[in-house]
Design goal:
This is Trk system potassium uptake protein. Its main location: membrane. One of its GO terms (molecular function) is potassium:chloride symporter activity. The protein is mostly helical and about 475 residues long. The chain has a domain at about 355-480. The chain is about 65% helix and about 0% strand. The chain has 20 helices and two strands. It is globular.
Length: about 475
Amino acid sequence: MQDFRPIFFVLGILLSMLAVSMLLPAAVDAAVNNDDWQVFALSAGFTLFVGVSCILATRTEAAMLNIRQAFVMTTGAWVTLPAFAALPLAFADLNLSYTDAYFEAMSGLSTTGSTVMVGLDYVPPGILLWRSILQWLGGIGIVVMAISVLPILQVGGMQLFRMEFSDRVEKALPRAAQIGGWISFIYLALTLTCATLYWMVGMSGFDAINHAMTTVATGGFSTHDLSLGWFKDLRVEMIAIVFMILGSLPFLLYLQVIRANWRPLFKDTQVRWFISFLGIAVIGSAHLMALHQDIGFWEALRKTSFNVTSIMTGTGYATDYSFYSWGDFAQPMIFALMFVGGCAGSTTCGIKIFRFQVLFETARVQLKSLLQPHGVFIAYYNRRPIPESVSESVMAFFFMFAISFAVLAAALGALGLDFITATSAAATAIANVGPGLGPQVGPAGNFAQLSDPAKWVMSAGMLLGRLEIFTVIILFTATFWRR
C-alpha cells in the first residue's frame, strides 16, 4: 500500500507558501480601501490552516520520495494549488463561479494565460496582482520541476538533461539546494530588471511589477483588456520581447553566465535552434505580411516580432488582435507555433525545442540507415550520443501529445464549439499558450462564454500540457497502483 504521508507533507508546505502569498494582494487592497482584502485574508487563513494541518498530521522522518510518490505528489500539487488559489477569485466581487475561478487559477499557475475575466481595467488591484503572482509562482515552479523532478521521472526525454547538465553544474554547485537557490535568485533578478525597465519607459509602478512577473514567467496575464497593446509603445514591446526570450532559455545555463562563463549559453544547440527557429518565423511572417497588406517591411516586422515571439514562447501577450488581416498564411502559422515552445528548463511550455532536435536526429539516422543498411550511424545532441531510451521517450511523447490534443479537441467539439474554436482552444490549453483563434477565444476575445464543462476540459488540458502528459496519464494505469 502506498504511503501518502510524504505527499501530504509536501502539499502542506506548498499550501502554506500559497497562503503567505495571498497576504500581498490583501495588503494592496487594504491600502486602497477595497473590501476584497478581507476575502484574501480569510482565504489565506483557511489555506494556511489546511497546509499546517497537513504538515503536522503527516510529519515523518526525513526520507526521499520514491518514483510513485513523486508522480502522485507532482500531479496532486498542480491540482490542489489551483483549487485553493481560486478561493479569492471566487469570493471576490467579480461574479465568477468556482468553475471560472478554478479555470483562471489553473491558467495562472500553469502560465497558460487564458482568461475568463473581462473589464480588467476596472478590476481591483489586489485581484490583478494575485493573477500575476500565480503566474510568477507557476513560472519558478515549472523551472524547478523541469530541473529536479522530470529528469528523475524520465518523462518525455527529460532524462537527457541529467546527462547534459550533471557534470558542469554539480562541479560548480555540488548541492541541489544551492542550485535551487541560485535559480530562484536568477528568476527574481530577471523579474526586477524587467520591472525596472518597464517603469523607466513610462509604465506605472503597479503595471510594471505585474507585467514583469508575467513576462519572465512567459504567462501573459495583463492588467488591461488590450494586453500590452494598451500602452502603444515600441519600447514596451522591445523589453517584452527580450524578457520573453530570456524566460525561454534554460535557466541552468544562466548559472554559467553568473560564473563569467558565457560560452555554454551560446554553444548550446538547443538555444541556437530556438533563436534560429524564432528568427525565421518572425522574418518570414513579416515578409508575407508586408506583401499581403502592402505595408513597409519594418512596420510588418514590428507587428510580427512581438506577436510571433509571444505565441511561440507561450506567453500570449498581443498587440495586433486580428491575425486574419496578416494574410492567409497567418492562422496556420500561428496554430503551428502554438506547439513549439521554448527550451527545456525554462518557464515556457509546448513540445520544447530539444524534442524537435531529438526527433530530427533520429529521423536523420533512420534515413541514412535506409541508404546504407550495414552502416552504423549515431544520433547526437550537443555533441553527445543520444541514448536510445531518450529517443524512445521523445517519440512516445509526440504520440501521446497528438492523441491528447485530438481527444481535447473532440471533447470541446462535442460540447458545442465550432471547429476553429475547439481545435485552437485545445491547442492553447495543452500547449499552455493563452489565446486561441477565431472571434470567441482569439486575442480579441476570451473564454468567458464557454460552458462550464468546456472550461473543466480546458483545465484538464492545461494540467496535461504543463506536466508533460505522462506525469498525469500514468496515474490512470492499473500498473501504477500495483506494488
